[in-house]
Fold this sequence. Notes:
Elements: H1 2-13, H2 15-35, E1 48-53, H3 59-71, E2 73-77, H4 83-89, E3 95-99, H5 103-108, E4 116-119, H6 123-143, H7 149-160, H8 174-206, H9 209-217, H10 222-252, H11 259-285, H12 289-307, H13 318-324, H14 328-341, H15 351-381
Parallel strand pairs: 1-2, 1-3
Antiparallel strand pairs: 3-4
Amino acid sequence: MTVFKTFWQIIKRYKMMILLYTFLLLLFGGLNMKTNDTSLNFVDSKPDIMMIHEDEAIGITKSLIDYMSLHANVSIVSEMSEEIDDALFYRQFNYVIFIPKNYRSDVLNGLKPSITVKSTGDYQASLASMLLDRFLKTQEAFVDSKLSEQEILKAIDDALQDRTEVVVTSKLDMNELSQVTQYFNFASYTLMATIIFIICLVLSSFHEEKVKNRILVSKMSYRVHNRLILMASFGYMLFVFLLFLLFGFLLFGFSLLTWRGFFYFCNAFFFLFVSLTLAILISNLVQKKEAVSGIVNVIALGSAFLCGAFVPVEWLPSSVLKIAHVLPTYWYIQGNEFLKTAEKLQISELGPLAQNMFFLVLFGIGFLGLNLLLLRMKQKRNG
Length: 383
């Protein structure tokens, strides 16, 4: 009991640090909920296009203009000017289409007049290019069939009227799941930092020379002492986990009382286990309290940036993610990302989540093994 009592007395000294990391978790979790977009509706995007035509706006030429005007925000001018390049540069338009003189007659005569375009190269410009290509290919197909102009126009109009209806089949509330996932992802920093920082500071107190000497002269064996320290550390980990669980319910309510919420917390529990074993290993390697703060910044903060805790995973370069594979935070966040998009949480479909948790357990076992090896080496050195 003396070890447990001493352990928690030291914990009390650093309660302000624990409150600080807890406040950070609540602050950024709350801000994340406020800044997330609450719209779940699909919005058809229209590019901004400038059309310049020297041909008369009748027949096929008018059909092209009308089609582009239906699917884009079109501004029509009659001649090219130097201001067009400036308009593209400042993104006033995404795409410029130049229809040459005699375009209509050349098309009807079986010629293939070229249409000059200028583009900003962004996704809106790509959409405009797809619209233009669709019209030109449809036009070419019916012109080759030797129909009259009126018949060609009607055939083109009928063909291009076929539109794809976008139907959202997923029943998941992606807005809420994105908020929950970002909360759990950001928690990778606060959880790891809280565990490593406090455990390393507490255990460094036990590594002080006076404390070591008292342990050596006491009736308690060094092995029993280490076992009690491990149990006390695990108790602190459970305290942090319960605190994290409580704040999750405060932010998201009973939406976490589901199987999905259960797996989110299971993933977080395994990550805390890894953080604890890593903290114990670090405390045996570095026993100076002054160095703990720097270690927390390097490990917890560095892992958070590399693995997608602060920046969404889909925005990170593939080269960064390849490096992140060697960090436990990567597998924890990948588990959260799987839970965000998984339509059904049936046992047969939980393979990716089980794999991520398995790697977390492997990291924890590996850190424990290294810690035991280090303790044996120290015992041999001390005789």
